[in-house]
Amino acid sequence: MKKKEVPTVPLFCNIAPLCIICYCLNMNKRIFISIGLPKNIQDKLVSYQDEISRSFTNFNDFCPIKWTKKHNLHITLFFVGYVELDDLVNVFEIVENIAKNHERFKIDLKDISYGPKEKSPKMVWANGENSPELGKLQTELEKELLDVRQPDNSFIPHITLGRIVQWQFNKIELEERPDIFKDIDFSFPVNSIEIMESERGHYTVLKSISLK
Does CATH place domain 11-210 in 3.90.1140.10? Predict the structure, then answer.
């Protein structure tokens, strides 16, 4: 007796619609432009993360902050968003053309605080000084990559040390919440800017571009 042939099914017919959507989304990259930190600055900031954690656990059995991993610490200059692979080369070219017209400079970090608003904090920030060189670089990146300058959008250079877990933070009585404000005095040179990919909380340097 001749065996009945089973019709072949195209590969994508066996994949759930959600999987197909995820596959398509992976064709795009979530891109931002940043300034990386030297290892010695990363180490100092991690020590402050530990110090703040202890200030919470002195009164509670938990710290309501999800800390940024040391290798992910950075200053975001401009968040580009999702970029198709075909357009990524164009982003590289735009950032390269901007970088070659900007001198190297330094960044001063001045304090650590809740952010963006102390009364209703969402994060813990290490705040920097906005120098003329940094301001011009950030403005040009925003202008060229966005095409339109956002009004009333004053750039505040900062490093996100951690993100506050709101439901845990709200469980702590107001008078028991530690005052984490601290003056710091760190400086570091900025010799390059990085084009980064963000994927599920992990950051990857796609290209490092030197300033002139």
Answer: yes
CA-wise closest residue to 180 among 127, 139, 138 = 127
The pLDDT value given to residue 152: 47
pLDDT: is 118 or 3 the higher one? 118
Cis peptide before 116 (omega within 30 of 0): yes
More confident residue, 149 or 154: 154
